[in-house]
Design brief:
The complex is a heterodimer. By secondary structure, chain A is mainly α. Chain A has 15 helices and two strands. Chain A folds into two domains: about 45-105, no CATH class; about 105-310, Orthogonal Bundle (MetI-like fold), CATH 1.10.3720. The longest helix of chain B is centred in the middle third of the chain and has 18 residues, at about 170-185. Classes of the chains: A mainly alpha, B alpha+beta.
């Protein structure tokens, strides 16, 4: 009696277990490279290139020490003439007949990534939210064409316009500046942000703002008081997508940054060149590079799931 | 509270005229119901008064002041929407306090709390003030929505089918309560519905809208007994008014020019047929409990009327049907009196 036209046969125990097993196996397979990077970052350089590969090894902080320092080779006599080692990295370095001569560029590059990644994300989401609200609520002339135009900026790989952008940036003095990279990533991300957020804002009934406007608020106040609190899910999901793009972007970063504004992705491969093939240092750099995205994604995982399944669960 | 006056207000959407030169005066303290089918322009009329739509022509005057060009927040009206009326991210208390916290009012905190508590008691939601507004039943949500309008003491309450998304029992309950509250505070109220029971029971005056035009406005009794045309006559009465050709049924005096006769239950006299004077037959009877709907056919015309359940009429009976002071309409559907 209680069945309805929409009832779905709920999966049995066996199919549930099979589905669960498939998901777990898939997750394990995709996580192997990440686990390998984490393991490699704690290996010594000889362990990292040993064959067959070592799964069990003696962990060392050497990769991390090498990542954050620059070192120079010295004679044994010179090293012995120094005082007792200052900290664990000094000790490890001396065992390799080297001394620490300074800090590497990893932290500044990592900070550049943070500034450019989060800066462009905040800007893209801010602009995207306002534009999406406008498209969602007002009769914009040629709205469909404008939305298509916005989407069309994503239809070719961004790198296809690398040369004109390179030339423009050189003329404008934006090459190798954080501002230039923030603007570039914002321009790429804002189309995604507008489209994604328009869908979310369309779902918020306009009666809420109308009620607020009648209750004595201006449209702007109603937007901040009523629309924004309900759009947080969409804003969070959009922010994650934007951050992931800006964080991982490599091609433009290689082309347009070389020093001051260089981000971590083009920097990490250059670690290899500093004193042999230092895979543990590369792995250490990669591991640390993964942390912000990991933290951000875990903090907003519910919203991210909502963003990924967006469209499938709409009424 | 204040008088609200619409002067020849017109609103177009593209080629469609949603509200067509509507003149309407809602007196201070009056309960006016706009009744009409979907698309008649009821909601647009409310939105025009609220300032959510701008009129293409005409003036809207609230309390003697022309507000046609004012923003919604400057008009001091309260609006109860059909649904989606509560702010889902706020509690019941915060919802009720929301209009009082607005930049337009900026009321001190203790006064807000006092007002919210008073109104919450009035709409009987005071036990759920701390609840999230999404954790309420449909009836409770509409109580809060009505409360959010009441908390403000505006110049007019505008209500857009506030009860239509509720089930029948709740609707009847809230209908009575709404009328009680309106009496208590002497509110000026413009209420939109397509439910004739709501219109008949609550209104001081009913306005009948069709295709953007205000066809007639008057007391429920006037609208029911004295409709100006076929459309108005067809809006009220249950079962639906029967529209018959003159001459089908016997009638004392039919005025010249009458093309249609409107016959409600009270205009039809049913007598069990004696011998050969039967002019109609009972096809079937719908038993609704307190009353019976009689489906009658007469020379191929279908007629529906009410009958006393104990009248002893059975399906298949031949009956004699006659008209008693029915409504007459001319060829354009206008009433002939």
């Amino acid at each position: 009696m209680s069945t309805t036209a929409h009832s779905v046969v709920s999966p049995g125990r066996l199919s549930k277990s099979i589905a669960g097993a498939v998901v777990i196996i898939y997750a394990l397979v995709t996580m192997i490279p990440l686990a390998w990077i984490l393991l490699t970052s704690f290996k010594s350089p000889p362990d990292s290139i040993s064959y067959p590969p070592k799964v069990i090894f003696e962990p060392t902080a050497e990769g991390y020490c090498n990542l954050f320092t620059t070192r120079s080779r010295q004679t044994d006599e010179y090293i012995e003439s120094l005082g007792p080692p200052q900290g664990i990295c000094d000790e490890i370095t001396r065992k390799r007949n080297m001394v620490i001569v300074g800090e590497s560029n990893y932290w500044p590059r990592f900070m550049n990534s943070l500034i450019i990644g989060f800066g462009s994300t905040v800007l893209a989401v801010f602009l995207g939210t306002l534009a999406a609200y406008g498209f969602s609520r007002f009769r914009v002339p040629l709205a469909d064409d404008l939305l298509f135009f916005i989407l069309s900026t994503r239809m070719m790989p961004p790198i296809a316009v690398a040369i004109p952008i390179y030339l423009m940036y050189r003329e404008l003095g934006l090459s190798d500046t954080a501002m230039g990279m923030i603007l570039l990533y914002t321009a790429v991300n804002v189309s995604l942000a507008v489209w994604l957020l328009k869908g979310f804002i369309d779902e918020i009934p306009r009666e809420y703002e109308e009620a607020a406007m009648i209750d004595g608020y201006s449209r702007m106040q109603a937007f901040f008081k009523v629309v924004l609190p309900q759009a947080t899910t969409g804003i969070a999901a959009t922010a994650i997508f934007c951050l992931i793009f800006a964080w991982n972007e490599y091609a433009f970063a290689v082309l347009l940054t070389s020093g001051e504004a260089q981000t971590a992705p083009p920097f990490i491969p250059t670690i290899i060149g500093e004193g042999g093939q230092d895979w543990p240092a590369v792995a250490a750099g990669t591991t640390i590079f993964l942390v912000p995205i990991l933290v951000f994604t875990i903090l907003l995982r519910k919203q991210l799931l909502r963003g990924i399944t967006f469209g499938a669960v709409r009424k | 509270m204040a008088e609200v006056r619409l002067e020849s207000v017109t609103r177009r959407f593209g080629d469609a005229v949603a509200v067509d030169h509507v003149d309407l005066v809602i007196a201070d303290g009056e309960f006016v119901v706009l009744l009409g089918p979907t698309g008649a322009g009821k909601t647009t009329t409310l939105r025009l008064i609220a300032g959510l739509e701008k009129p293409d022509g005409g003036r809207i005057v609230i309390g003697g002041e022309d507000v046609s060009d004012c923003a919604p927040s400057e008009r001091d009206v309260a609006f109860v929407f059909q649904q989606y009326s509560l702010y889902p991210h706020l509690t019941v208390f915060e919802n009720l306090a929301f209009p009082l916290k607005s930049p337009a009012r900026r009321m001190p905190k203790d006064e807000i709390a006092a007002r919210v508590n008073k109104v919450a008691a009035m709409v009987r939601i005071d036990h759920k003030l701390a609840n999230r507004s999404t954790a309420l039943s449909g009836g409770e949500m509409q109580r809060v929505a009505i409360g959010r309008a009441l908390v403000r003491d505006p110049s007019i309450f505008l209500m857009d089918e506030p009860l239509s998304s509720l089930d029948a029992k709740l609707r009847a309950e809230l209908r009575v309560e709404l009328k009680r509250i309106q009496n208590e505070i002497g509110a000026t109220l413009l209420y939109v519905t397509h439910d004739q029971v709501e219109a008949m029971t609550m209104a001081d005056r009913i306005g009948i809208l069709a295709e953007g035009k205000l066809l007639q406005i008057g007391t429920p009794r006037e609208i029911y007994t004295d409709p100006v045309n076929l459309h108005v006559a067809a809006r009220l009465g249950h079962p639906h008014i029967n529209l018959l050709k003159p001459g089908l049924l016997p009638c004392e005096s039919v005025p010249g020019g009458a093309r249609t006769i409107g016959a409600r239950t009270e205009h039809l006299e049913i007598r069990p047929s004696a011998k050969n004077d039967a002019n109609a037959r009972v096809d079937w009877i719908e038993h609704l409990g307190d009353q019976n709907h009689l489906h009658i056919s007469s020379e191929g015309e279908k007629i529906i009327t009410l009958a006393d359940p104990y009248a002893g009429i059975n399906p298949g009976d031949a009956i004699s049907l006659s008209l008693k002071n029915p409504l007459f309409f001319d060829e354009n559907g206008h009433r002939i009196t």
